């Protein structure tokens, strides 16, 4: 306990622990009870962009320590003060004496995390919180031992126990029943989200016994290990055998190869229970989606073959297969719109399956175990258009699937020609990437990759691709913009045979003359931000945003009987009642925006009031030229294009709960507008409210 108290008011071993102030303190007369409450200032290791959005540099926690010297217990409770209306964090720690050995200290820790909302970055905050919590658990014992050693160096090796100050002491400690303590176990290396219970025995006299390695009968052939698995300690070898035997006894279906089992063990530092859990989840996932047969049964669409700027290219100096990805040349939005997330994910999975196959081949060719590959990512051409929000979301979901099912397959990631915009993309993506994987990243700006410590340290000169100044012709597609004629509707994307995820980013809608399509968004917090991104696939439309204090009637699907037109490829929902009057029942909050066929429109609106907001896409009739009775050529062409009085849009909307959205995310908004092929005509609505920006 003396060692623990030395952590305050600040601790150099915990860099994020900046300072602490005592806000309340209580001591009993006999000094057996000591309760102290502190307000702790923390510098959380969070992306700079996220801190800017949240508007804080530090977060504050309240920690209450309750020491009972009579019972020999210390209870620590902590909760967050900052953002307590958005995020609820509770932590409880307990130090007690082991009932069977008074020289042992038992430590129990539990925590819970509940994220209600955080400016649209809830998943990122969860990752950061879990990373921070796991790191603290790992360092807890190390910090205590550091201060114990400090006490020893000061000559303090014994601290007498507390005794009652009165002369007439209580007879014996038998009158005080000690709280039961459950058996202690080792703290696991990582934490789960909620309800964690971590216990560890800190033995000051002797270290806990190590688990014994496997018996000689469990040994693998030494030549087999050297040839296919690499260097393994007896403990690691035993873990592999035990996990494989468990799979053979319990798993129905194809048993993975030793190399694949080993990847999951390495990903969890050879903790068998944790490795078994993620491996079983992955095997179930593979069986459910027939991933084992993807290379034989699935042919990538022609769009991917033409516009996905990635492919395999020889191997690196360590014999690892080399995959080249020209991310800066890829039309992320075009691929998502033309293929959907399903096909993109399948293609990424096929790349990973091909990587596993190439690792096996290279293991045979080079005569040594090769279990991972190297990825070279060229960012030449990367700009703000790659930060298109739905595209980034799709990328993050792909990363999560790959991280869960292909651990320890990336040997090295070389990122070349990183532009100035790269830190923004990295800020959004990095929290979703495992710490062990991030350590394998090497990032080069500009032409730094050509100097010492650059590409030549990892790849032979003879196979450096031509577009990086090498002599080897690289057959990776050059990418480019995907033609909008290849874009597919939301309904077409939903009709895939097998879903690897069920959510579809875009929805499609049909707009008819006299029958607009409307979307209802309920806003609770006045300073929320409504964002949208839509493409006008057919005809010209007028885009409006309305506000109403009362909810409209339940949405009704237009029968379209008056038009005698059916809508096979999109919904038509009308919310504004015919008897409603503009200015009385609802109001316009943005000036109308006329959108032409083929245009991409992105924008946002900072809401001023709670209530109900209605996004409306309305049929636009082209007026004849006022200066002459003769119609213009553009009018004639437009009338031919929309002769059916039908328009079509594909749209995506999202609500961000932050009044600082525009100020903090200006760069992201500009990326939305810049992504369109019509970005040269990027404008802002000159008549819209100052809190809204609509861009083409």
TrEMBL record:
GO terms for molecular function: RIG-I binding. SMART domains: CRAL_TRIO_N (SM01100), SEC14 (SM00516). Keywords: Cytoplasm, Golgi apparatus, Immunity, Innate immunity, Phosphoprotein, Signal transduction inhibitor. The keyword Cytoplasm applies. Residues 171-191 are annotated as: Disordered. It is found in: Cytoplasm; Golgi apparatus. InterPro entries: CRAL-TRIO_dom (IPR001251), CRAL-TRIO_dom_sf (IPR036865), CRAL/TRIO_N_dom (IPR011074), CRAL/TRIO_N_dom_sf (IPR036273), GOLD_dom (IPR009038), GOLD_dom_sf (IPR036598), PRELI/MSF1_dom (IPR006797), SEC14/CRAL-TRIO_domain (IPR051064). GO terms for cellular component: cytosol; Golgi apparatus. One of its GO terms (biological process) is innate immune response. Residues 502-655 form the GOLD domain. Residues 300-476 form the CRAL-TRIO domain. Pfam families: CRAL_TRIO, CRAL_TRIO_N, PRELI. May play a role in innate immunity by inhibiting the antiviral RIG-I signaling pathway. In this pathway, functions as a negative regulator of RIGI, the cytoplasmic sensor of viral nucleic acids. Prevents the interaction of RIGI with MAVS/IPS1, an important step in signal propagation. May also regulate the SLC18A3 and SLC5A7 cholinergic transporters. This is SEC14-like protein 1. It comes from Aramus guarauna (Limpkin). The lineage of its organism: Eukaryota, Metazoa, Chordata, Craniata, Vertebrata.
């Amino acid at each position: 306990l003396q060692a623990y108290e030395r952590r305050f008011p600040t601790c150099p071993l915990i860099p994020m622990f900046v300072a602490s102030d005592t806000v309340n303190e209580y001591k009993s007369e006999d000094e057996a009870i000591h309760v102290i409450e502190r307000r702790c200032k923390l510098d959380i290791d969070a992306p700079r962009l996220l801190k800017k959005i949240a508007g804080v540099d530090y977060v504050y926690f309240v920690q209450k320590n309750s020491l009972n010297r009579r019972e020999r217990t210390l209870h620590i409770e902590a909760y967050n003060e900052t953002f307590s209306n958005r995020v609820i964090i509770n932590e409880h720690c307990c130090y007690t004496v082991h009932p069977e050995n008074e020289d042992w200290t038992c430590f129990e820790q539990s925590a819970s995390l509940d994220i209600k909302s955080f400016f649209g970055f809830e998943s990122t905050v969860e990752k950061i919180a879990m990373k921070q919590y796991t790191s603290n658990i790992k360092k807890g014992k190390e910090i205590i031992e550091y201060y114990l050693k400090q006490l020893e160096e000061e000559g303090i090796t014994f601290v007498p126990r507390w005794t009652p100050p009165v002369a007439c002491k209580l007879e014996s400690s038998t009158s005080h029943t000690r709280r039961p303590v459950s058996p202690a176990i080792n703290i696991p290396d990582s934490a789960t989200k909620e309800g964690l219970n971590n216990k560890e025995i800190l033995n000051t006299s002797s270290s806990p016994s190590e688990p014994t390695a496997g018996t000689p009968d469990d040994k693998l052939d030494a030549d087999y290990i050297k040839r296919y698995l690499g260097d393994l300690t007896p403990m690691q070898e035993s873990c592999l055998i035990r996990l494989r035997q468990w799979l053979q006894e319990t798993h129905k279906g194809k048993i993975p190869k030793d190399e694949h089992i080993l990847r999951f063990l390495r990903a969890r530092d050879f903790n068998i229970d944790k490795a078994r859990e993620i491996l079983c989840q992955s095997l179930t996932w593979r069986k459910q989606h027939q991933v084992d047969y993807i290379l034989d049964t699935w042919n990538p669409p022609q769009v991917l073959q033409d516009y996905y700027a990635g492919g395999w290219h020889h191997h690196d100096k360590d014999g690892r297969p080399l995959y080249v990805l020209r991310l800066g040349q890829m039309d992320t939005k075009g691929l998502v719109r033309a293929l959907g997330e399903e096909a993109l994910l399948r293609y990424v999975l096929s790349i990973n399956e091909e990587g596993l196959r190439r690792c096996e081949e290279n293991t045979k060719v080079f005569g040594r175990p090769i279990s991972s590959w190297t990825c070279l990512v060229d960012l030449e051409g990367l700009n703000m258009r790659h930060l298109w929000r739905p595209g980034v979301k799709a990328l993050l979901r792909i990363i999560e699937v790959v991280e869960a099912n292909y651990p320890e397959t990336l040997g090295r990631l070389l990122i070349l020609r990183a532009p100035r915009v790269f830190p923004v993309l990295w800020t959004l993506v990095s929290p979703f990437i495992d710490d062990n994987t991030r350590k394998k990243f090497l990032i080069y700006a500009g032409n730094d990759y050509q100097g010492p410590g650059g590409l030549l340290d990892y790849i032979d000169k003879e196979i450096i691709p031509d577009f990086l100044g090498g002599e080897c012709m690289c057959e990776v597609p050059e990418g480019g913009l995907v033609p909008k004629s290849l874009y597919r509707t939301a309904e077409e994307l939903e009709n895939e045979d097998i879903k690897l995820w069920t959510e579809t980013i875009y929805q499609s809608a049909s707009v008819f003359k006299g029958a607009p399509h409307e979307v209802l968004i309920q806003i609770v917090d006045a300073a929320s931000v409504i964002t949208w991104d839509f493409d006008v696939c057919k005809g010209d439309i007028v885009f409006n945003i309305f506000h109403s204090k009362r909810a409209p009637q339940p949405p009704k699907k237009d029968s379209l009987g008056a038009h005698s037109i059916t809508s096979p490829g999109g919904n038509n929902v009308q919310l504004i009642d015919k008897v409603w009057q503009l200015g009385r029942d609802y109001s316009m909050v943005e000036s109308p925006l006329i959108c032409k066929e083929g245009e991409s429109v992105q924008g946002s609106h900072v809401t001023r009031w709670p209530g109900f907001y209605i996004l409306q896409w309305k049929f636009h009739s082209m007026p004849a030229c006022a200066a002459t009775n003769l119609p213009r050529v553009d009018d004639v062409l437009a009338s031919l294009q929309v002769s059916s009085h039908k328009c079509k849009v594909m749209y995506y909307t999202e609500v961000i709960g932050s009044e600082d959205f525009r100020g903090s995310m200006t760069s992201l908004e500009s990326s939305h507008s810049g992504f369109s092929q019509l970005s040269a005509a990027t404008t802002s609505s000159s008549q819209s409210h100052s809190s809204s920006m609509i861009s083409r």
